C-alpha cells in the first residue's frame, strides 16, 4: 500500500483511540471486524488527508448514534404489503456475486418511480439495505472467500429513463449524500447499461464535474452489457435485465419469473432481508406502522452542483422536446392545410 499510506492509517488509528465509547461501539458495527479497511475507505474519500478523514468518520459515527442506525435492522417496514410497494417503486436488489466475491447490486434507475410511499420509507429501506449488506452479506462473503470484502459492484439499468425523473432529484440527492458521507468508497465499479439518449446527454455535462477517482469507477457498457459483465461474474449472477437484450428492468417484468427479478419482494435476497429484520424485531414491543425517521444531511457543494447541473440539463432537454413537438405539430398542420387546398 505504500509507506506514506501505512503511516496515515497508523495516525488514524491513534486518533480513533480518543473517541467516546459510544462511538467506538457503533464503529464496531460499521467495520465488522475489519477496521483497517474502514480507515482506508475514509482516507480515500478525503484524498488521504488524515485530519479530514478522521473528522468525516467521527461525523458519520455521531450520525449513526444520533439516528440509532445500529437499531435500523430491527425496524421492518410494515405491513409487508407496504414493503412490497416500496420494492415495486425503488428498484434495488442483490443479483449475486462477482468471481472475486464482490456483491453485485442491481439498480433500476429508469423505472424507479418512488411514488408508492413517503420519502422516509425510501430512505429507511435504502439504509437498511446498506446495513444488511455491510453487517451480513459482506462478512459472509469475507468468510467464504477468506479475505476482507468491503466493496460491491453496482449495475445501473437506465431503461425507461425519462425527463420526468427530474421529480426524483431531491430524494436521490438525499440518498446519495447519506452514502457519500456515511458509506464512502463502498462501490468498486459502477456499470451503466441500457443507456438512452437522455443519459448520454446528461453524462456529457456531469462527467467533468466528478472527481477523478469517481470517473474511473464508472463504465458505460453497450446495450445490456451482458458480454462485458460475464467477464467478471457468472451468468447466474447477472441482473435479470442483463440476461437478454431489451429485457429491461421494468418492475412488472416477468421474463424469467419474479424469483429471478432481483428487485421483487419475492426474490430470495429481499425475502431473506425482510425475514432477518422481522426476526431482529421479534423480542421488542409489537410493531406499529410508521417509518424510521433519519436526519437528512446537507449535500456538500460539489454534490449540490452536480444535482443542479442535472436539473438544468433535464430542463434544457425538456424545452428542446417541447420545441421539437411544436415544430412537428406546425408541420402537420401545414401539411393538412396543403392537402385541403389541393
Automatic annotation (TrEMBL):
InterPro entries: CRAL-TRIO_dom, CRAL-TRIO_dom_sf, CRAL/TRIO_N_dom, CRAL/TRIO_N_dom_sf. It comes from the Eukaryota. Pfam families: CRAL_TRIO, CRAL_TRIO_N. Residues 79-239 form the CRAL-TRIO domain. PANTHER family: CRAL-TRIO DOMAIN-CONTAINING PROTEIN, PHOSPHATIDYLINOSITOL_PHOSPHATIDYLCHOLINE TRANSFER PROTEIN SFH2. This is Phosphatidylinositol/phosphatidylcholine transfer protein SFH2. The lineage of its organism: Eukaryota, Viridiplantae, Streptophyta, Embryophyta, Tracheophyta. The gene is LOC110782075.
Amino acid at each position: 500500500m505504500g509507506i506514506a499510506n501505512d503511516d496515515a492509517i497508523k495516525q488514524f488509528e491513534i486518533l480513533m483511540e480518543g473517541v467516546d465509547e459510544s462511538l467506538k461501539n457503533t464503529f464496531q458495527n460499521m467495520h465488522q471486524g475489519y477496521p483497517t479497511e474502514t480507515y482506508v475507505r475514509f482516507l480515500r474519500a478525503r484524498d488521504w488527508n488524515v485530519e479530514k478523514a478522521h473528522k468525516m468518520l467521527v461525523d458519520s459515527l455521531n450520525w449513526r448514534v444520533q439516528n440509532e442506525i445500529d437499531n435500523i435492522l430491527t425496524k421492518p417496514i410494515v405491513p409487508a404489503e407496504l414493503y412490497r410497494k416500496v420494492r415495486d417503486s425503488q428498484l434495488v436488489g442483490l443479483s449475486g456475486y462477482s468471481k472475486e466475491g464482490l456483491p453485485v447490486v442491481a439498480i433500476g434507475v429508469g423505472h424507479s418511480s418512488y411514488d408508492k410511499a413517503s420519502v422516509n420509507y425510501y430512505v429507511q429501506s435504502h439504509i437498511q439495505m446498506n446495513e444488511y449488506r455491510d453487517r451480513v452479506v459482506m462478512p459472509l462473503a469475507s468468510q467464504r472467500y477468506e479475505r476482507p470484502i468491503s466493496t460491491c459492484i453496482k449495475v445501473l439499468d437506465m431503461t425507461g429513463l425519462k425527463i420526468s425523473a427530474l421529480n426524483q432529484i431531491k430524494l436521490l440527492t438525499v440518498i446519495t449524500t447519506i452514502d457519500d458521507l456515511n458509506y464512502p468508497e463502498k462501490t468498486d465499479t459502477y456499470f451503466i447499461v441500457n443507456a438512452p439518449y437522455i443519459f448520454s446527454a446528461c453524462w456529457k455535462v456531469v462527467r467533468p464535474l466528478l472527481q477523478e477517482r469517481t470517473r474511473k469507477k464508472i463504465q458505460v457498457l453497450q446495450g445490456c452489457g451482458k458480454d462485458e459483465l460475464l467477464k467478471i461474474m457468472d451468468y447466474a449472477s447477472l441482473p435479470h435485465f442483463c440476461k437478454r437484450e431489451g429485457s429491461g428492468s421494468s418492475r412488472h417484468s416477468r421474463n424469467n419469473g419474479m424469483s429471478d427479478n432481483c428487485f421483487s419482494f419475492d426474490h430470495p435476497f429481499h425475502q431473506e432481508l425482510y425475514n432477518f429484520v422481522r426476526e431482529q424485531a421479534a423480542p421488542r414491543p409489537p410493531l406499529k406502522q410508521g417509518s424510521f425517521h433519519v436526519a437528512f444531511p446537507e449535500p456538500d457543494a460539489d454534490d449540490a452542483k452536480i444535482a443542479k447541473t442535472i436539473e438544468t440539463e433535464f430542463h434544457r432537454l425538456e424545452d428542446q422536446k417541447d420545441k421539437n413537438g411544436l415544430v412537428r405539430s406546425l408541420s402537420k398542420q401545414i401539411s393538412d392545410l396543403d392537402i385541403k387546398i389541393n
